[in-house]
Amino acid sequence: MDDLESRVTAVEQRCRGDGRRLDKLEQEQAVIHSLAASLQVMAAEQKHQTEALRSMREDVSRLDGKVDALEMKPARRWDGLVDKLVWGVAGGVLTWLLARAGF
User: Which burial class, exposed, middle or buried, applies to 90 when counting CB atoms under 10 A from its CB (0-12, 13-18, 19+)?
Assistant: First the structure.
């Protein structure tokens, strides 16, 4: 009988130990579940940020084209002014030469 009591006591102690281990595993499982839920939220947010970044890149590309066009406008004006100035000087020189030649 003494052997039976000691075996029952050992089994009860193991059960208590197993109960503590199960309690600890349940807590860890809850933490893992919480982490998984947080990861899902982070993945959804990352997707949203990726879409927002793509949209911003498209906007920047469009603005870049507009800025290039605005930067070229004064250059075209300057080129036109220089072109007219060259033709004016060439015309003046030609007129002077024709006037000297008696035409």
Answer: exposed
